[in-house]
């Protein structure tokens, strides 16, 4: 009789075994893993096409071992529409930041949702433009200082943070819309479950599914990763409540 | 009974695209090209294809990008303001080496302008309206038949060279009707689309469609590759039509609708005894530089007629023999400002000097 | 025998795993790795208390942690 | 042989259909033809014009500066476009709606006929375009009534095919005016 | 102590705009120009001005259109892909005769490309990336000081001629720091903005800012008016810098960052005994055609250096004396592909023939 | 003693006394009048700037006796933002069609609302692209035949009609959002009242106000004006319910 | 004395006013106006029944109707 | 007189601050100077480089093909950039992090010093840039320590001014290495 080691946590096979360019503590890494785990779960890696956006996650293809199409900033939902219509039996997802999806890409996400495109959209809301050096995003919190809101975001001048998961839930074409966070083991595990649901929506019900993930950008928040992580519960979740805002089970 | 149909130019271009095997249309309405989405909305569902009326021209070009990245023949169409909005997407398609067809049925501008025929988007089409110094394959139909034929050609060239193609039409060519013989698609051998994403199969290498090149020297090398292909295009795929160029003392040049008008003008002038010929570029990029050079080794006077204030004339000047004179006659577009054959004929008489 | 394997080369020293461990078994080390970070490590004697719950790994954005469970086998 | 023709009127008079019809009939007769419409931004009531070129050769310009013939269905069109007709050419003018400014001595022949009244006589003011078609075909001797009748079937949308007999009636009424 | 500041080019252009009285900035972040919105976000509130981070580049250019329609000095800035998105808006501004400043700190492309310096947007800027055959006033700063000075000039020219102005920079000029003397705004007399909307006062005539012209001949006339103004610009407002042009056997020409590099190369070549001069266009539209013609009446060889595969060289070819030879040396942009003075000097030696 | 005639209904002075280019029965004319009456009501004609969009209402300046700025298709809210920021004490409104506002201009309207720009937006929803000849709009009803939905709008392919008044009401920056119709005298009078409220929101509370007006396009609906008018109650209102979806009274 | 004045030149014959009148006093005429439309008119004797409620005018998209009320004045 | 200098290292070593500092000091001394940074897309850990040109005349090109001097703070920079130094030029190499591939016989002078260790000695590994600044200033004789000290006040953000004494200490430590 001997002891064997059973792996209880290893890297998903849909990810390549490479070190990312993300900053220390950046939770794009966490979200990448959760998406990859969902692809592994449904065993669809070989028939998945990822649609990358412009932002710190632009290198999707460096990390995911799947086919990838790059999109112009904000246009991933339109590119993904073209991909999905061309190859309807493939699993197609977009991965977009809050600058990408909630600012320049507002029109594309709303209309992809409204048309009910059978896509899964992973939306990483870190309340700032990470890649370009921390400018104000539509999701920046009131009072938050960024390089383009140096005196803090002023709702009277700049508007208030926009809640995409709730907004998209309003549209008839949306079958699933939820918001999660990745700031605690419990939240991470739950986020994984929700992301799986969003892929299930596409795979089974062939509808539009949206997951907003609250995540950190320690670099541009000017915090260390631990402080940044704490900010999610302290400041982000009160403004962006977690939950599932829409879930339609039936086939379309 | 002959096999000729009598259709609009806009319908012909859509029929040509469908005959080329295009099964994806993404577009947004705008006069004077809405017949194209209207035609494809009617016909594509019957062929098992996809028609999407996109929420905007920008969404449309990016849907095209997505479908093309999967290896499909796909198209969009618009008119001047809508084409301006597609410039970023076109630059991405060019940078990502994606084929595809974009039809521009030009209208007058700048800004909202009007819906009359225009050739003021020549620079935008051939020099690169988007950023980054890429080029498009640009073909300029001058008849309903060519709207059809060049749509077929555009898809083949675009696939072969992995360069997006544009048909540069105008509202006369788009709105006019004349006879069309819808030839079936010629069988040509094209390289396999082994770059297209399709969901990587077990063991197969990953495929990525992108324009981002960050490693030292990578983007430069990528650009040189593109530019070599542009040179290849010029060497192999230049197309033009010549008329009476042998004995011409004056060479008229024009494309698209102005070439049609010029054909009448040349006929009138010949009847009046003027030795005048016509050289009509069919491909605007690649531009028939060599043809211009050759003809102007003998014919030393060139009159370029355009429905703008002078755009193609620059390419003509850059192409002709050094001692040739290039004259320009043009009008900016607008309601009531379409030039007439008589008008061009007058210009011919003016430059043709010692005539009949 | 190890339950928690931290890949020093992947670790960026963000310390999020230290927040994740319910037993408080992880900390940042004191020697820089090649990329210039202080990688996480288990506190001395932590292996024994470790429950292989993998919550540390759930928190790691860089997939630097693998977790194993020991099982008796015949 | 090349014939060119300019047609103008207000929206609702069937100007574009008339142009389409003549060009299509020419195609059916094995000729070449081009038809080129131009209209303002207004949906209703605005001016509508089109140019038709019929030729045994290839049609060069579908745009014509000085047409050999014009069909002018209202006063505004008469005023604006009659002067454009080529010397030696002719114009058909709808005298029901346009009678002022008809040139007395002119280098062109003007055929002024009460087209709208004739159309009303056939049954509907909107038949004015078909009356004109009959006149033009007979006078120009460019097209047969038979090919016009076949062309009608092509250019009218299916749902309007029930009006074909009435249309043919109007065609013939127009043609008859010249025969006589 | 001298009055020199030591600042980035991007900061200098923003300072210049503020010194010109610009109090409205509308923009969207993009590397390598985000220092401009960051600077104006900090400074404008202090001056009672307005900074809006727009939801997109398209929204930004249209906010600029709105503020400019009210007669205000306003600006936006972006980099290549973002500028492509502004093409429709630029065409509307041109068609509506609205002044305004657009800064393009070019990066490499096509598509997403990279963030390195580029001159591949020359065609887009000077030939018209948008539809309708309009032109922009295009100025090309080659130093931090010029980023400031030309921002001031751009506003004055733009207001005087009612043509939108573009500063065509690149990521080196935007990101580099050097000394800046922030001269105050010169007093120039400009025509009153009696076309600006402001809410029509009692009895005052209605004011409309538009580009739509539908009446017979109206749009053509409007376009001719615009083109007359372009001719006026060329007659009056062409700007360039000449260096050693008197005795040059070879004339080097370049703009922006390549002109800086060329200056070092020319210095090196002169030291090596080559008779080489430099003609640097400062205004790209209007292009200094006359200057090129004049110099090439004597100097018969021209070497055009660009950070692209050949764009300005076309304007040079169209400008020089008929018997002058124009050579081109360029590289497409990208990481690690910035040309060096040594590289240009080698080309100079190659074309300068019989040298020291 | 004699009789005098007291005018109870005459044209508002903010409109010019010209005949419009609109088709017979087109209710753009009705909406123009109601807007002009609101300007008269607040006596702001002399300090109002209209922002025209691209659509059948592009000739705003031909009919309103006010200063007007033209916008590219869909961008009126951005242009109006520039105008209002430049001249904050002027009354600024946009007048947009459903193609303009709910398709190409989605992003601009959402972000102008979210920033809480002090604008009044008049949105004429006639379920089609009128000016370009009757193509499908995002507001086209399911099953409705248009020139680009010749077999009827198919929600599975084209999505369902989008409800802008409800969607915009979700945004924090929106202070007033309502939907009205102009298909009966009662509705017209009520529409006039609501449009006045929307201007009041701007004039008094300085916030973003939105009015969606259900109107006919007889020409492109292929109906006579009377049939078209009846379609509003029969088909449009069931899909686009009338009502006020948001109304915040306080000053911002 | 007229309460309802219909401007024949502005009227496009859309008939929406006829729907609007609660008394049913309006109809389309039978003679074309210059623009080619049949303008609306009051039925014979309508003036008497007309209440000057202006609902017809509310419905008119083309501002072709003006409405007056008669009032005795000293 | 024109001096050009290329600086390379990894993010966090203060490469850009070092370039800024030297150029600013030159400005304060009444000279002309340009500073031009280049960095990859990565926010952290990536390579950072910059070029500084100091001149009594106008600076022509801020871009330098073959610099007269290079400061190379890690192995990757050494490998990539040392060969670019102009013959007759010199390089300062951080031997704490880069020791391989040092040329033995070369047309350039290589000064290899354990800059990181020296910095740690002063108090923080991140002071490596200021140690290098001191060395470069003294060896090139282009700038005085006084102007570097004044420049520090300009290039450091206000919130870091409390570190100035330590920075100056590092500067001096570097300079002292050459003086001796
Ligand atoms: C058309 C265009 N505009 C702007 C940019 C610059 N840009 C790159 S990424 C980005 C935003 C990144 O923010 P976000 O989408 O939130 O992603 P993150 O980096 O925060 O994950 C911007 C504005 C661009 N590449 N293209
Ligand atoms: C960029 C651009 N795309 C398309 C058009 C063409 N276009 C003009 S109006 C219009 C839509 C009109 O529909 P809507 O906004 O609903 O107004 P309506 O005419 O129905 O009142 C379109 C697509 C344009 N002018 N510009
Ligand atoms: S900048 Fe922010 S979002 Fe981007 S990699 Fe770094 S931490 Fe992540
Ligand atoms: S597996 Fe669980 S107990 Fe063990 S170190 Fe990780 S978090 Fe702590
Ligand atoms: S969470 Fe991962 S990267 Fe961060 S310190 Fe722990 S092991 Fe290292
Ligand atoms: S097309 Fe429709 S919206 Fe346009 S004017 Fe006519 S009825 Fe009105
Ligand atoms: S005012 Fe009233 S009663 Fe009189 S006609 Fe008009 S709707 Fe009828
Ligand atoms: S509603 Fe107006 S336009 Fe229509 S018929 Fe009546 S009066 Fe005429
Ligand atoms: Mg972000
Ligand atoms: Mg509409």
Describe this structure in a few short sentences.
The complex is a heterooctamer, with 2 copies of chain A (252 residues), 2 copies of chain B (356 residues), 2 copies of chain C (74 residues) and 2 copies of chain D (180 residues). With 252 residues, chain A is α/β, with parallel strands linked by helices.
Can you name the CATH architecture of the largest domain in chain B? Answer: 3-Layer(aba) Sandwich
What is the overall number of helices of chain B?
13
Which regions of chain C are unreliable across 5 or more consecutive residues at pLDDT < 50? none
The largest sheet of chain B is: 7 strands, mixed
- Number of E-type strands of chain C: 4
Q: Which geometry of chain C do the CA atoms define?
A: globular
- Number of β-strand runs of chain B: 15
- For the biggest β-sheet of chain B, the strand order reads 3-2-4-5-7-6-13
CATH class of the largest domain in chain B: Alpha Beta
Per the CATH scheme, the topology name of chain C is Alpha-Beta Plaits
Oligomer: heterooctamer
Quick check: average pLDDT of chain C? 93
**Cα-based radius of gyration of chain B, to the nearest Å:** 21 Å
Which key terms come to mind for this protein?
heterooctamer, B: 356 residues, alpha/beta, Rossmann fold, five-stranded mixed beta sheet, 15 strands, D: 180 residues, Pyruvate-ferredoxin Oxidoreductase, domain 3, six-stranded mixed beta sheet, 6 helices, globular, binds thiamine diphosphate, binds iron/sulfur cluster, binds magnesium ion
């Amino acid at each position: 009789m001997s002891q064997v080691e059973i792996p209880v946590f290893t890297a998903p096979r849909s990810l390549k075994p490479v070190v990312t360019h993300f900053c220390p503590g950046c939770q794009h890494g966490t979200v990448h893993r959760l998406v990859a785990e969902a692809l592994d779960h449904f065993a669809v890696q070989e028939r998945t096409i990822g649609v990358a956006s412009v932002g710190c996650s632009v290198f999707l293809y460096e990390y995911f071992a799947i086919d990838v199409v790059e999109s112009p900033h904000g246009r991933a939902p339109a590119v993904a529409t073209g991909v999905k219509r061309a190859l309807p039996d493939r699993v197609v997802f977009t991965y977009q930041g809050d600058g990408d999806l909630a600012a320049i890409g507002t029109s594309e996400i709303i209309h992809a949702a409204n048309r009910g495109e059978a896509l899964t959209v992973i939306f990483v809301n870190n309340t700032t433009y990470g890649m370009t050096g921390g400018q104000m995003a539509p999701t920046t919190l009131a009072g938050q200082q960024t390089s383009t809101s140096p005196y803090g975001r002023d709702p009277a001048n700049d508007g208030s943070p926009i809640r995409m998961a709730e907004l998209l839930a309003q549209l008839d074409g949306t079958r699933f819309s939820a918001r999660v966070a990745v700031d605690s083991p419990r939240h991470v595990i739950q986020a994984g479950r929700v992301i799986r649901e969003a892929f299930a929506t596409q795979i089974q019900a062939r509808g539009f599914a949206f997951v907003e993930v609250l995540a950190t950008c320690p670099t541009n928040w000017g915090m260390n990763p631990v402080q940044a992580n704490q900010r999610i519960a302290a400041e982000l979740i009160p403004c962006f409540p977690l939950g599932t805002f829409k879930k339609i089970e039936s086939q379309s | 009974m002959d096999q000729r149909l009598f259709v609009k130019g806009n319908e012909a271009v859509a029929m040509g695209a469908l005959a080329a095997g295009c099964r994806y249309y993404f577009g947004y309405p705008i006069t004077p090209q809405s017949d194209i989405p209207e035609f494809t909305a009617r016909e594509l569902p019957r062929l098992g294809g996809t028609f999407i009326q996109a929420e905007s021209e920008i969404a449309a070009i990016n849907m095209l990008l997505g479908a093309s990245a999967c290896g499909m023949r796909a198209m969009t169409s618009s008119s001047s303001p809508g084409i301006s909005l597609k410039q970023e997407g076109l630059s991405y398609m060019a940078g990502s080496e994606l084929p595809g067809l974009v039809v521009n049925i030009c209208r007058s501008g700048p800004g909202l302008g009007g819906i009359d025929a225009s050739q003021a988007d020549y620079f935008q089409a051939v020099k690169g309206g988007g950023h980054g110094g890429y080029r498009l394959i640009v073909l300029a139909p001058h008849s309903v038949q060519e709207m059809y034929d060049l749509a077929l050609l555009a898809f083949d060239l675009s696939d072969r060279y992995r360069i997006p193609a544009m048909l540069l039409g105008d509202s006369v060519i788009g709105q006019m009707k004349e006879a069309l013989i819808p030839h079936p698609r010629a069988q040509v051998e094209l390289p396999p689309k082994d770059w297209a994403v399709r969901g990587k199969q077990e063991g197969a290498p990953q495929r990525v469609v992108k324009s981002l090149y960050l490693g030292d020297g990578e983007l430069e090398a990528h650009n040189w590759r593109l530019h070599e292909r542009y040179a290849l295009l010029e060497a192999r795929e230049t197309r033009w039509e010549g008329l009476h160029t042998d004995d011409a003392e004056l060479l008229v040049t024009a494309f698209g609708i102005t070439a049609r008008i010029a054909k009448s003008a040349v006929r009138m002038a010949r009847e009046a005894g003027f030795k005048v010929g016509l050289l009509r570029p069919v491909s605007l990029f690649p531009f028939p530089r060599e043809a211009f050079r050759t003809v102007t080794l003998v014919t030393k006077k060139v009159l370029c007629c355009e429905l703008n204030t002078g755009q193609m004339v620059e390419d003509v000047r850059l192409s002709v023999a050094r001692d040739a004179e290039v004259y320009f006659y043009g009008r900016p577009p607008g309601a009531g400002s379409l030039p007439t054959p008589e008008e061009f004929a007058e210009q011919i008489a003016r430059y043709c000097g010692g005539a009949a | 025998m190890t339950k928690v394997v931290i890949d020093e080369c992947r670790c960026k020293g963000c310390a999020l795993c230290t927040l994740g461990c319910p037993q408080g078994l992880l900390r940042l080390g004191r020697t820089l790795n090649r990329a210039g970070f202080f990688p996480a490590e288990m506190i001395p004697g932590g292996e024994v208390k470790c429950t292989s719950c993998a919550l540390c790994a759930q928190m790691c954005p860089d997939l630097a942690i693998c977790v194993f469970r020991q099982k008796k086998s015949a | 042989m090349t014939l060119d023709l300019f047609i103008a009127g207000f929206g609702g008079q069937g100007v574009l259909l008339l142009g389409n019809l003549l060009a299509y009939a020419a195609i059916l007769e094995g000729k070449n033809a081009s038809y080129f419409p131009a209209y303002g931004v207004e949906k209703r009531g605005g001016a509508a014009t089109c140019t038709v070129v019929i030729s045994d050769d290839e049609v060069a310009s579908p745009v014509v500066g000085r047409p050999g013939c014009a069909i002018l269905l209202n006063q505004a069109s008469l005023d604006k476009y009659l002067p454009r007709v080529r010397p030696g050419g002719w114009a058909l003018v709808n005298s029901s709606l346009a009678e002022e400014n008809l040139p007395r001595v002119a280098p062109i022949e003007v055929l002024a006929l009460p087209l709208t009244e004739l159309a009303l006589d056939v049954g509907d003011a909107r038949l004015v375009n078909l009356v004109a078609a009959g006149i033009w075909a007979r006078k120009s001797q460019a097209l047969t009534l038979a090919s016009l009748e076949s062309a009608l079937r092509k250019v009218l949308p299916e749902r309007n095919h029930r009006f074909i007999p009435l249309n043919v009636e109007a065609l013939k009424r127009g043609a008859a005016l010249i025969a006589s």
